[in-house]
Give the backbone structure.
Amino acid sequence: TGMLLARWLGPATYGNMAFLLGTFLGIRQLLDMGSSAAFFTFLSQRPRSKRFVRSFFVWLAIQFLIPLCVVGLLFPSQWVETIWHGEQRGLVLLAFAAAFMQNSVWPVIQQAGESQRQTLWVQGVGVVVVGVHLLAVVLLWWVDMLGLYAIFAAIALEYLLAAVVAHKQFPYIPGIEVDAADGVPEPMFRKYLGYCLPLMPYAWVSCAYEFVDRWLLQNYGGSVEQAYYAVGSQFAAIALIATASILRIFWKEIAEAHHQGNHVRTGMLYQKVSRLLFLVGAIIAGFLIPWAEDL
């Protein structure tokens, strides 16, 4: 789908698309501050209640509304044009909605499913989503309506619907979270804060790196260079095909084993999986190196 979009949109438009989505990936890390990693870890340690999951969805809604209000209502038009290189405010907001649904909401749904070992269901829905997106892109091109507004709207709608459909199949325990030691409700905010504090500086630096990297490339290289960078990144990501599939399963098992104090299993899992993923990634990357000039 990415290669078809690059060909049909052309380097300039595809570069603008990559630029808009890339800047919001950086902003997402700033807003998230490691909370999604904490959510996945806590969810993987033991069964959780619907209330626990809903509380994190409220936090996701806050992450969505803050940039929407700031960019949509508070930023002067001159700021929007300067930061996003002349793009219209409506397109910027639509790009944010698409990036948020694809890279914040959908990964959380995947994490919730993986934490309950519903890997086949979650990844199956994911395959359907990308298949539907491919069909939508082909249809938009066929009727001569392929543009950034249509693409961003399709991405946002597809991943929102996928999240709703996938989440309906997840069972949760009744009641509220209690501390295993004394049976009182768990102080979830304190748990999240303790988990996220060491990750916050990393999130700030990552946000600055992601945003500035894309902005400087767009400013000095232009949208065409941005497009080639995005296409190159997609080819490079092929080397991570096994990592992307296995990582959440690995995280679930590690979190549960560590929570239970089973450090022998934790060490065994890490040694086995890390060697396998490194080997598969190295083989694929090595195979691609001779084709680098053609790609």
